[in-house]
Amino acid sequence: MTSEPVRDAFDAGGRGLQHHGLRRANERAVLTVIGFNPGVSNADIARLSGLAPQTVSAILTDLDSMGLIARGEVLRGRRGQPATPISLHPEGAFSIGVEIGWRHVDVLLLNLQAQVLAHRHRDHVFPDATTIIDTIVAMMDEVLTSLPDGLQARLTAIGVALPTNIAGNLALVDAPESQRPLWEQLDIAAELTDRTGITVSLFNDGNAACWGELIAFPKPRPADFIYFLIGRYIAAGIVGDGTLWEGPSDNSANLGSMLVTGPDGRPQVAHFIASVTALENRLVAAGFTVDSSDPANWPWPDFGPLLEQWLADSAKALARVIFNTTTVIETRLVMLDSILPPAIVSELVQRLEAELRLLPITPYTPPQVLPGHLGALAPAIGAAELTLYRRYFSRTLADLAG
């Protein structure tokens, strides 16, 4: 049984597009063309959006007056009418991205061209519900010092990425039991909105990182892929038909919790095999002393066979997760990123591709596996980008109504 209200999948919820909604949808269509094709001309926008040239011209005038676009120098000397390249204005809007991780907090400032303008990072032993809001607000104040005077009003939204159900999983980082009721009572979005006066949206960390990867991917961007961020545990996401698959609880791509066969032959969730925590546990058990807050700078050459075995076991586990996922989601691409050094990520990518080829399934064509583009900052970047996307680019009924 589920407590979710029953609603027909095609019920628009009373949010049909009225005239003003259609206008907003057209504005967002134009912004989307500009944002993902910087330097396009009026004619290009009309062709790519399917809108009439007169409609495009009127919308561009409005967007220009709002400071959302920038016009370049007129391009002459070509066939046809001179064209003016149009791009998003980097100072047209800003957002803040936050990641609340199991061992850290990241806060960054992003502009409308998805450029990170400032970033702050702080480590913690566990996410403390009594101090987390004060910590985030203080870090926001620090990154906002890089925002020029007069542009503060263009800070439109805050996106916060975090693991789903922190309260129920605090034992993973040995947090005091007293933290659980505090996290259950903490309304992060409401608290931060009250402190900042800016709308706050919450996202699953894997979903946010997956969206960040989609935006960072060079053209042509893939419409379908599976995404993994190997961090303290496994954050994951799925893009299908160009849409981020969040699900009713915003946690539909919880691939790290998928059951696989562990090294001992027993069922185990992938989190406890292919994560940085799983590797750290092996290293500590073998007598190594490592800084939990800084895996990027661990003495990797010293780990020898232990690292080799973790890579092998992780590749096997992830290959089974990918196979099981591709039986439901048709995709030919897997993106693998991590908080670990690029050389380790590259090795894991190669081993994962090899394990996928070894699966005794006929017929099965393994997907391509590529390293990600954003690393440890993917959740915070994706959270900031999602707030901007849903405010200025998305044309879903929910976002138009919102």
What descriptors fit this protein?
402 residues, alpha/beta, 5-stranded mixed sheet, 12 helices, 37% helix
Average pLDDT reading: 91
Shape: globular
Instruction: Please count the helical segments.
Output: 12
DSSP strand (E) fraction? 15-25%
Number of DSSP-assigned strands = 14
Radius of gyration, CA atoms, in whole angstroms? 23 Å
| Spatial order of the strands forming the largest sheet | 5-4-3-6-7
The low-confidence runs, each spanning 5 or more residues with pLDDT under 50, are 12-17
Largest sheet: 5 strands, mixed
The proportion of residues forming helix, as a percent range, comes to: 25-40%
> In sequence order, what are the helices and strands, one letter per element?
HHHEEEEEHEHHEHEEEEEHHEHEHH
Could you say which structural class the secondary elements and strand pairing correspond to? alpha/beta
Distance between the termini: 30 Å
What does this structure look like?
The structure is a single chain. The chain has a five-stranded mixed sheet. The chain has a five-stranded mixed sheet with strand order 10-9-8-13-14, with helices on both faces. A two-stranded antiparallel ribbon has the order 1-2. The protein has twelve helices and 14 strands. Strand 4 and strand 5 form a beta hairpin. The chain has 402 residues and is α/β, with parallel strands linked by helices.
